């Protein structure tokens, strides 16, 4: 199962150029199927490892009469309704035109997932147009040059998580009919197929020396019968290793795990340990998508743990906190309460991040850890549709109106999600400089709670618009 992407926008912005690039020589059909308009072209597209269907609203001539406007609107609406994701293209050299605004309105109302592309953006002449595109309220524009093959990596980066989501959805929608037995004779018919990803999920395990990082990683590797990658055997000096880590549902997820000081401990640098672990941790965090902060249950939330957790947050990584050596903990319930309390107090910037207890030694809790990692990754990639976001904002403003410094109420006009990995939101408002931090926190906490986004930093940017 894959998804359908519609390329929409006014004539002459470069839609067909992109369409041709995505479809290449694999143009499946130039559509003359009855029932489907001739004005919509459909093709089998390929971008990196993604395979999907692309629709182009070609066949419109630039003109100014009303009938064309109407036709363009109907055509666009049909394309939008057929598609899972819309790529809305504007011409960055021209900037945002009134016709672009008409398209933006249609998309805001009708499309669940909009990707904005400012095309013809090769060269500095397009800078102003790219910036203007933000004001459409459809997220951060991709700087693209369809003609010069630029911006397709960014397009890929936006499509990939959505594609994963559609695949997951399709898997759960499709009933399995074949019964499949593995070598132990176990019925695998309920196991969803192994997802194919562009690259392994990048996970860093960080924490102070002796927290149990090596033990944890070895456990993950040891229990993994699908061990892959030439690095696997050389854990001693390896900085990263790739493996398929199967979760509780049996789905093996390719992961590239970055190890930090744990490995180095075995090298003869005992005295430099503290220093090493921080700089290695830093490097691992920079590479990672998800950071697992591993704590020792006996001495949790030490200074070094706090520093590395804070670093992961500032770098914008998805974070999971794992408390290790849970096997030797006697008063588990009481301890867990204490841990949660310390977590809230000492790492308020990571509010909502999952806290899981594990024993790297016995393997207990590893399934929970797997689930938490996958979920944090999913949330980190989450894109909230603009329409839903603005409905939400209206409610938040009613519930708790923004302050009115010097008698002038700060007006929040609308908001959009400009980024993922981690989620970043832009709010257009009057006097952003006067907005108190407490109100921004109110919005961030609300976003986290109402759109269920634990385990990821959330960025909120205020942009001035009167
Ligand atoms: P459509 O009507 O939106 O499908 O637009 P086309 O794909 O037919 O492109 C319209 C014109 O813009 C053509 O002359 C293209 O060669 C040109 N064009 C497309 N993409 C780019 C680009 O990235 N940069 C520049 N400079 N021109 C482009
Ligand atoms: P690293 O420095 O973070 O890589 O830590 P290691 O993996 O080398 O572990 C440090 C020590 O803690 C070793 O003696 C491990 O056997 C022990 N250890 C690691 N995980 C656990 C666990 O879950 N339970 C217990 N009881 N000991 C553990």
TrEMBL record:
One of its GO terms (molecular function) is hydrolase activity. Signal peptide: none annotated. Residues 168-197 are annotated as: Disordered. GTP 1 binds at residues 9-16, 56-60, 119-122. Residues 173-189 have a biased composition (Acidic residues). The keyword GTP-binding applies. The keyword rRNA processing does not apply. Keywords: GTP-binding, Hydrolase, Nucleotide-binding, Repeat, Ribosome biogenesis. Residues 3-167, 201-381 form the EngA-type G domain. CDD domains: EngA1 (cd01894), EngA2 (cd01895). SUPFAM superfamilies: P-loop containing nucleoside triphosphate hydrolases (SSF52540). GTP 2 binds at residues 207-214, 259-263, 324-327. Belongs to the TRAFAC class TrmE-Era-EngA-EngB-Septin-like GTPase superfamily. EngA (Der) GTPase family. GTPase that plays an essential role in the late steps of ribosome biogenesis. Associates with the 50S ribosomal subunit. This is GTPase Der. It comes from Sedimentitalea xiamensis.
């Amino acid at each position: 199962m894959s998804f359908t992407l519609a390329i929409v926008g006014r004539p002459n912005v470069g839609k067909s150029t992109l369409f041709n690039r995505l479809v290449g020589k694999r143009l499946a059909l130039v559509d003359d199927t009855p029932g489907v308009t001739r004005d919509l072209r459909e093709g089998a597209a390929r971008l990196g490892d993604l395979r999907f269907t692309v629709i182009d609203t070609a066949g419109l001539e630039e003109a100014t009469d009303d009938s064309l406007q109407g036709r363009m609107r109907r055509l666009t609406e049909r394309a939008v309704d057929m598609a899972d994701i819309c790529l809305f293209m504007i011409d960055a050299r021209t900037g945002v035109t009134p016709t672009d605004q008409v398209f933006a309105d249609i998309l805001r109302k009708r499309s669940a997932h909009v990707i904005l592309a400012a095309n013809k953006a090769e060269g500095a002449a397009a800078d102003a147009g790219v910036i203007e595109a933000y004001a459409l309220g459809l997220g951060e524009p991709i700087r693209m040059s369809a003609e010069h093959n630029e911006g397709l990596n960014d397009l890929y980066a936006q499509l990939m998580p959505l594609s994963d989501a559609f695949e997951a959805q399709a898997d759960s929608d499709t009933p399995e009919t074949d019964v499949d037995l593995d070598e132990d004779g176990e019925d695998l018919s309920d196991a969803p197929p192994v997802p194919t990803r562009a690259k392994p999920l990048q996970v860093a395990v960080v924490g102070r020396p002796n927290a149990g990082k090596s033990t944890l990683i070895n456990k993950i590797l040891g229990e993994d019968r699908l061990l892959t990658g030439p690095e696997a055997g050389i854990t001693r000096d390896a900085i990263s290793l790739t493996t398929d880590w199967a979760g509780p549902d049996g789905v093996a997820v390719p992961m590239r795990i970055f190890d930090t000081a744990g490995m180095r401990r075995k090298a003869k640098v005992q005295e430099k340990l503290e220093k090493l672990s921080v700089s290695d941790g830093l490097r691992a965090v920079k590479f990672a998508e998800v950071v697992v902060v591993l704590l020792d249950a006996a001495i949790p939330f030490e200074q070094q743990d706090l520093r590395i957790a804070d670093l992961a947050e500032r770098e914008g990584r998805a974070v999971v906190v794992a408390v290790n050596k849970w096997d030797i903990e006697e008063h588990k319930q009481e301890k867990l309460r204490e841990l949660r309390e310390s977590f809230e107090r000492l790492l308020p910037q990571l509010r909502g991040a999952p806290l899981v207890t594990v024993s790297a030694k016995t393997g207990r809790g590893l399934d929970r850890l797997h689930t938490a990692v996958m979920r944090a990754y999913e949330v980190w990639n989450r894109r909230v549709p603009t329409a839903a976001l603005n409905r939400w904002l209206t409610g938040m403003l009613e519930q708790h109106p923004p302050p009115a410094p010097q008698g002038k109420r700060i007006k929040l006009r609308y908001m959009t999600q400009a980024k993922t990995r981690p989620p970043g939101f832009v709010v257009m408002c009057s006097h952003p400089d006067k907005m108190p931090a407490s109100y921004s926190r109110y919005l961030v906490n609300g976003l986290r709670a109402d759109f269920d986004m634990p385990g990821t930093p959330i960025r909120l940017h205020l942009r001035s618009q009167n």
